[in-house]
Design brief:
The chain is about 35% helix and about 25% strand. The chain is of the alpha/beta class and about 270 residues long.
């Protein structure tokens, strides 16, 4: 299997290019088309929000970026999606390596039924990142610190991750995602199951993480998109209607469908 990591270092010409791109991307579930002709650039070290009504295709598109749709029977992706200029759907590409570079945090916190420590250590062990126990200890501490969780759990690393609160579990899942040092983090409505206080902590964390990671977030909350993202893409009925700087899109949308959604006329 060809590892996507082999092409990890972008050429000088690509350094100012988008981290990921989508060109003429179509997605089908069986005979039903879920996405049509999506063109989108995802900027490096930015937060890009995907918004739109339920069923519009935003989560489907998110799952295209690290080929999570591969696990859905009958799902077919056409067009081109690139990471540092490399087509992530090309033949022979190592999907495990791709998902190490493009991590994912899901809607509902899903810690493994393991200790807090082993939740974080799982990925580095799988990918052979740590050569010693002390290196693994350092990765666990750094990942939990970056996720704003270390001080809360450092004295109970052997306790089950499932014993944490909902907000802590979601930060544990973010720590688990960043433990393998991905370049892109995909977040599929990461706050929808959380209370306002936990949501605020996750939003603060997203703002900090974008210094080191490229983030794409699906959110049902336009207020959240406005708070956390620099770019916003509006999907409707399987089409990418409009994409732009977040402030511009919310204050001066170019398409009347975007205007209708953000003003609450439909959605």
């Amino acid at each position: 299997m060809e590892a996507v990591a082999e092409a990890a270092a972008p050429s000088p010409a690509l350094r100012n290019s988008p981290k990921m791109t989508s060109r003429k991307t179509d997605v089908y579930y069986g005979e039903s088309q879920a996405l049509r002709d999506v063109d989108l650039d995802i900027g490096e070290n930015q937060v890009t929000s995907l918004i739109g009504p339920s069923g519009c295709g935003k989560s489907t598109f998110l799952r295209c970026l690290n080929r999570m749709n591969d696990v859905i029977d009958g799902c077919r992706v056409e067009g081109e999606i690139t990471l540092d200029g490399i087509d992530v759907y090309r033949s022979g590409l190592d999907v495990v390596q791709l998902r190490a570079r493009v991590g994912m945090v899901f809607q509902k916190p899903n810690p493994f039924p393991k200790s807090i420590y082993d939740n974080i250590a799982y990925g580095p062990r799988l990918h052979g990142i740590a050569e010693s126990k002390s290196e693994l200890d350092d990765i666990v501490e750094l990942s939990l610190s970056r996720a704003g969780l270390w001080e809360e759990v450092k004295d109970r690393l052997t306790s089950p991750g499932t014993g944490l609160s909902g907000g802590q579990q979601q930060r544990l899942c973010i720590a688990r995602a960043i433990a393998v040092n991905p370049e892109v983090i995909l977040m599929d409505e990461p706050c929808s199951a959380l209370d306002p206080i936990a949501t605020a902590k996750i939003e603060e964390l997203i703002d900090e993480l974008r210094q080191n990671f490229t983030i794409v977030i699906v959110t049902h909350s336009m207020q959240q998109a406005a708070r956390v993202s620099q770019k916003t893409a509006f999907f409707h009925l399987g089409n990418l209607v409009e994409v732009g700087d977040t402030e511009q899109l919310f204050t001066n949308p170019r398409d009347e469908r975007t205007q209708g959604y953000i003003t609450g006329r439909f959605g």
